[in-house]
Amino acid sequence: MIKLCSKADTYSKSVAAIVYGLAIVSLFFASSVFHLFSLFYINGRLRSTLQLCDRIVICLFIAASYTPWLLLRDFHASWGLTALWSVWIAAIFGGAFQYVYLDRFQSVELMIYLAISICPAYSFIYMHEQSGLPLLITGALFYLFGVIFFKLDGHIPLAHAIWHCCVFIAIFLQFNAVDTFLITN
Predict the structure, then answer these.
(1) Which of the two ends of the chain, N or C, has the fewest CB atoms closer than 10 A to its terminal CB?
(2) pTM to 2 decimal places
(3) pLDDT number for residue 48
């Protein structure tokens, strides 16, 4: 986040850098705390609360990942702004769903994550400047590939660890795309 903010030379770039940077920090923090406590087999209310925070942050992170692209790029008509509002509303809905139904409807949870992740990408066909999209899409493919392992957790060894590796690679690729093609540019 500090790297992006230090390079931001406009107000919009600063907002995009802060939203995206805070989302990355929040994602890694929430996930790390939840998994740390899971190592010690802590059950009950604390574990459920940490898992809920982890899941809600994932929804918000997805929306924040789109924010720099939808805020800083020009679109035909109002596609960018419409997609920006839509992804944040969907993320809030996803977080609320997690709050109410945590782990009760796992297939629906997965569909919500995928919808929040994939639907806003439709707006990119209306984006005037396409530079950086191949790197963004490659990161998205790592997320989608990782979902396979996320769903296989408990069925094959190290599936959850592979999922986290895919997430790390995706964030690395997409961070570099945001840095190189949006903030620095």
Answers:
(1) C
(2) 0.91
(3) 87
Q: Which residue has the tokens 């986290």?
A: 164
CA atoms within 13 Å, Cβ hemisphere of 118: 9
Q: What is the mean pLDDT of each run of 10 residues along the chain (185 residues)?
A: 87 95 97 88 82 93 96 89 93 93 86 89 90 94 93 91 96 96 89
Give pLDDT, residue 53: 94
Q: Are 121 and 83 in contact (CB under 8 A)?
A: no
The DSSP output letter for 72 is H
User: Rounded to whole angstroms, how far apart are CA atoms 73 and 172?
Assistant: 21
- Region of 43 (left: φ > 0; alpha: ψ -120 to 50; beta: rest) is beta
Strand partners, 127: 75
Query: What is the Cα–Cα distance from 7 to 47, expressed in whole angstroms?
Result: 38
Going from the C-alpha of 86 to that of each of 24, 79, 90, 107, 120, the distances in angstroms are: 20, 10, 6, 22, 8
Whether 179 and 3 have beta carbons less than 8 Å apart is answered as yes
What is the three-class DSSP state of 15? Answer: helix
* Token couple for 71: 């805020």
Beta-carbon contacts of 134 under 8 Å, excluding residues fewer than 6 positions away, are: none
Stated length of the chain: 185
